[in-house]
Amino acid sequence: ASLSYMTKYQHRMPMIRSTVPMIFRIVLVLPVVQGLSLPAHARSMRTAPSTVRMQEDAFGASHTSFYTDAVRQDKYELLDDVLEAKLADKELVQVVKTMFDACGTITEALRTELVTVAEKQASVFGDVQLGVDVVADNLMWDVCKTEPLIKEGASEEEPEVRTMHEDGKFCVCWDPLDGSSIVDNNWAVGTIIGIWGSATGIIGATGRDQVTSMVALYGPRTTMFVRLDGGVY
How confident is the model over 196-232, as pLDDT tens digits? Predict the structure, then answer.
């Protein structure tokens, strides 16, 4: 079949061979002719570089990263000293310390717990609960039960107010592990805590009624933010 095809179209092959070089000659010559027909200033613009080279000092990690300007100190303020100086309500100081301990415990749990879907899905909001959500929430409940100053507690995982201690003076509400949907990617997640006085409680209270609030950010190291009398620390 190949032989008969070549025999049938053999008389056309010289024309094809002679045409191809002509096509290439036309393509190669046209830019030259067009270039000669342009004015001198237009030709210089046409050959000018289309991009501007950036300064070399505009590149590198120093221009794309955020670096701290903190320097090493011989002495650092301790948590007890900061709370003693910046928070007048000493009973509230005790509750804040308890919450610090709770977030420290959650930090350790996140380092060892596997990130899997929880066997029992109990979120009233329809969110998929992970095992670490349940672990963090249970740790918060356990800590609140051990602190006599906490009267009531409530969690984002189970939004119902529970009585911890009848004579307690503070009410605590928390999201045990905010952002847990990205924890499997090893991205930072956190615990959000709001604390109210027992006079207002949680139901019907506003953010302005809070006596303090806290956020724990879990990453390569745990960072805590807390609102004290003089602002956020």
Answer: 999 999 999 999 999 999 999 998 889 999 999 999 9
What pLDDT, in 10s, does the model give residues 64-98? 566 778 889 999 899 999 999 999 999 999 999 99
Q: Is the pTM of this model over 0.85?
A: no
Rounded Cα gap, residues 89 and 150, in angstroms = 14
Distance (Å, whole) CA 154 – CA 211: 16
Instruction: Say how far apart CA 143 and CA 155 lie, in whole Å.
Output: 13
List, as one string, the DSSP characters of 92-121: HHHHHHHHHHHHHHHHHHHHHS---B-SS-
Which helix (H) or strand (E) is 17 found in, with range? helix 13-37
Q: Supply φ then ψ for residue 117, to 5 degrees.
A: -70, 135
Which CATH code for domain 82-232? 3.30.540.10
> CA neighbours within 13 Å on the CB side: how many for 4?
1
Query: What are the tokens at 212?
Result: 């303090």
Element housing 150 (H / E)? strand 150-155
CA 132 to chain centre: 17
CA angle 201, 197, 173 (to 5 degrees): 60
